[in-house]
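The material for today's practical consists of a large collection of protein records. Backbone structure tokens are a discrete shorthand for how the chain folds in space. An example says more than a description, so a record of this kind follows:
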Amino acid sequence: MLKITALMENTPSENKALINEHGLSLLLDNGSSRILFDCGSGSHFMYNAHKLGISLDDLDAVVISHSHYDHAAGFRDFAEAGYKAPALYVGKGFFERKYAREGVRFTDLSAGWDEEFALSSGFPIHTVEGKIEILPGVFLHQGFPRNHKEETIPERFVKETPAGFISDDFSDEIALSIRTGKGLVVIVGCSHPGIMNMVDEIRRSSDEDIYALFGGTHLVEADDKRIESSLSGLTGAGAKVIGMCHCSGLHAEEMAKNELGSIASGLSVGDTAIIE
């Protein structure tokens, strides 16, 4: 049995004791391993875990999908609270500073901590390139060919390099997949490289269909045509459960419910998806 619990997500659930805010943090527990996937934007994901009676001790790994603050900034709070894990996984290029640019104004969207902070806090850093198996049946994926030309990245997203500011291609973003008896369960953070670009590569490298997908699909700025194409692509990849949340956008989530019915499963703060 795999349990996916949303410790942080944009939308409230029926549990009004919890705090919701723009961000994502998921706890994955398959009975043999416990993985924290993303840390939200601050300490509130830890508060929610406490309210839910969920321990954040004895984790097997922390995985951060990319370095935008709403997925990564909470790691500082997590480390400063004294939590530990034997491994921290990030994608190649994670520590480059990221911004939203509007004219001459740059808004820093970065995690707010660096490699030295993680190491000094006792977290060994593992940089993900390609596909790696981090635990039995648990894989991380990095490097997604951009074959779906409609899956564009907004021009405002840039990153700082020694050569100056350049467009952010989010080559650092990673996704996670867990092998189950029903097929792969895929966990994504924001899917900036394009959700179908990511799904296609995960299927190709795994040679398996996808049974379920949870996380942000960054369809919040997509038009109806792209949303419909993404939904069709996910079901074509075998998905029987599609748990879009966070940056997917309320319109895309509503379209998924209307077009896919019971296949569409949202995920709000405090919700747990159970794959048996």
Remarks:
- DSSP finds seven helices and 17 strands in the chain.
